[in-house]
Input
Amino acid sequence: MIAQLLEVSSTDLEDVRRRRLLNILLFGTGSLSFIALIGVVAAYFLGLASTEDFSRLAPIISAVFASLVLIFLINRRWSGWIAGSSFTLLWVVVFSFADEPRQVVEGRALFLFTIPILMSSVILRPWASFIAAGICGLVITIVAMLNLPDYAQGSPPIPTIFGFFTVAFVAWLAARSLENALAELRVLNTGLEERVRERTFELQQANEQLTLAYEKLQELDQLKSRFLSIVSHELRTPLNAIQGFAEMLQAEVYGPLSQKQRGALQRILANDERLLALVNDLLDQARMEAGQLSLTFEPFTLKELIEDMESTMRVLVEAKKLFLKVHVSPAVPATLVGDRKRLHQILVNLINNALKFTQNGGVSVHFYRLDDDYWAIDVADTGPGIAPEIRDSIFEPFRQGDVSATREHAGFGLGLSIVKQLATLMGGSVSVISEVGFGSTFTVKIPIVPPQNHGNQQRPGGRV
Amino acid sequence: MNQKFGLIIEDEEDLATIFSEALKAGGFQTEVIYDGYLAQQRLKEICPDVVVLDLNLPHVDGNQLLIQIRDDPRLAKTRVLVATADANMAEMLDREADLILLKPISFIQLRTMAERLGSSEE
Output
């Protein structure tokens, strides 16, 4: 309520500050004069004051009160300048009647004039204190000339006026320092607000960019899924058709074949299989990157796994005139739980990799129990070995040990990357020990009890 | 002479030919339909011993056809071989297939399968 009364209409912060200060002073002095008026009226009716005193004081106090109300209205609605000047002048005038003329000019009441001088510096402008001092000096000179015989010749009360200007100087200094400090604070404040605005804007922009990037990522993700389905369907379907028709020809569904035709068909089928394997590798890689590859854990025997491995690798091993030795330590459980198809893939990829770089000798596969929790497979070759500087990168996708050899050793360089990711999915790991010139040994470590989170329900129906 | 009857529902013509030839080699008489809707209509008229069913079909998908076959008492003896490239799709079927063939499907394997089915008595 009072805070609302103190409000003034202005956009200049300094003006607002002065006018609010003036309002506070008006409230204070207005309340005091109102109380004084009630006191005078009460004293008169209670017989404590004479009629003479009452008729002298009541009109003055009423006039002061009315003036204060008027100045308040001017200050609120109209002009802080006029209100402030009027307020200062009002008190100069009031104080000049406050006591006997000599007391006003030289004695007890003299200090009262410092009040308007000090006030003017804060409610008008710092330099207004000098004007107020001038006006006060003029007023007491007039009071002195009109009332005191020793001043009648026109000589002003110099010490008093000098005192006024000293007070004005001090008031000016104080008010100016205050205003400077406030102005600096406001500049700082404005800078701060601007900085906050700037930062907020930057944050908003970053947010928008993030949203855009996120949308783009989602788009890419969808593209990836689309790519997966294209590779899966559009590439595999024609490959399946090539394989099927070649098999039909080979089965002599369309009539008997010559030896050469048979040989050509064999090559078609072998290449189709190779292409299919590459497509499957790409697909597996993409699926694993998208986190879409899940494993199916079922019980299987090590014997089945080894038989599958041997039947898949036999042709290639014999073609390269290398050996494939298998050794099983008795401590490995005969029945294991895991994704047999993916374990087969790990073995085939490791042996393929070993055969690819081995010209003499062969590959030894060793199944053994590592400790209470893990079993392991070693795939050791008699190839050229892997240089130490590239040993860490061979498990990254699209890498091959010897980059210059990529043409000769055809493939995407996905085999080992897939091995590593599959082993990780199974809760295990893969590592390699190698000595240049003496071959490499890859070790896959697999938990005996498979992790829970990748297990799938068994598929309905059988599978071929 | 009661020759067994196999229906192939597959929209890829080449694959449909291979499946058809494999069934024929296994002793079946065959019919090929390339469209899900047409298969839906045809299945109301005929009673095949074996259906080779692709899942991605135009108009009506393989899963719906599988439901239709399984829910039709007339087709109670029909064996359904679902052929799909997507193992995940095969796991989400609403009815159980007799066999799930994961593409790529080998002619030789399918022929062996057909020979076994062709010779088996009910």
User: Anything to note?
Assistant: The helical segments of chain B are 13-25, 36-42, 62-71, 87-91, 107-119. Chain B has five helices and five strands. The two ends of chain B are 16 Å apart (CA to CA).
